[in-house]
Amino acid sequence: MTTYLEIVTVLFSVYFQCVFLKRIGLSLDYLSEIQAIQDLANQDQAVKASPEYIPFDVNKVEFYVSTTSDKTTKLYYNETRSLRNIKGFSTDSLTVFVIHGWINSHLTQVSVVMRDALLKHGNITAVIVDWSYYSHMDYTTSIAKVPHVGQTVASFIRGMVDDHNCSLDRVIVTGHSLGAQISGFVGKSLNGSLGAIVSMDPAGPLYFESFPESRLSSGDAKYVQAIHSNARMLGVNYNMADADFWPNGGIVQPGCDDESYSLFSHNRSYIFMAESINNNNFYARKCNSITDYRSGSCAGNTVAKMGGLVFDTSLTGAFYLNTSATPPFGLGDIFGDGQN
Length: 340
Known about the structure:
Layout: H1 4-23, H2 43-48, E1 62-67, E2 70-75, E3 94-99, H3 109-121, E4 124-130, H4 132-135, H5 139-164, E5 171-176, H6 178-189, E6 196-200, E7 224-227, E8 243-247, H7 261-278, E9 283-286, H8 290-295, E10 303-305, E11 317-321
Parallel strand pairs: 3-4, 3-5, 5-6, 6-7, 7-8, 8-11
Antiparallel strand pairs: 1-2, 1-4, 9-10, 9-11
């Protein structure tokens, strides 16, 4: 028998996704273009897809491990011993996890762009986390699985420590959108002992500033960075990390001016991050707003680099910068020589 709570969950899910699609400039006619797999008009299907009806299965989370020396290998959370069979895997080098967002997978752009940038850098083990079984469900159901996915990724990392004596200081977890929120639960599950988290436009809808225990926050790793590119729309609209970067003000990105500007701005965060891995020319200034930054009033303030894989953890606060509308996006330090 359908309960009142289940009906409310279904109605909210349908309502939220209609609003969500409208905000990013897409109509319901274009659901197929973003790979949605549910018929939101069918209440029975939506009820069956509600959090109460879908138990979490750790084996629905897959880990695609790549190095420059070997082909990609698919593993599960309890198969970390098999890492020793992958050419190029070394605990002396960085291991970087990439976690995609809603309605994505290890084959979609965020995963491919980030993996390719990491492998181009070299001497890195790239681990693409695929949780598409759950990310292709309605948004509220996907959110309900976020903590579980984070705990599963944390289990994989614990296996790296136990089986290979891997140092958590050599582990970086990156995530885009809902994947960024997952990265927070990875860190929480490891009691903040991760080396670093880099979050790319952390998902905003249903994540509230006043509940840091239920979202990514500073303290989830030894260093947490957030790159905000579509605040007030698909991303959060508040500082949440040790260092929060607001390129171009963090709301609408240059060159993202068509009818789907919000989605393009949201995705620009991982494009920035991928570029920064091999050519970090994203110099930002500590500042209170993009208006102050562009007026030059912050020109003498602390400089920090956005993204990358090497971090100055002493630099904290909110940082602003301009970027180009086309690649390469990094403009360097437009106010000086890049010295703190």
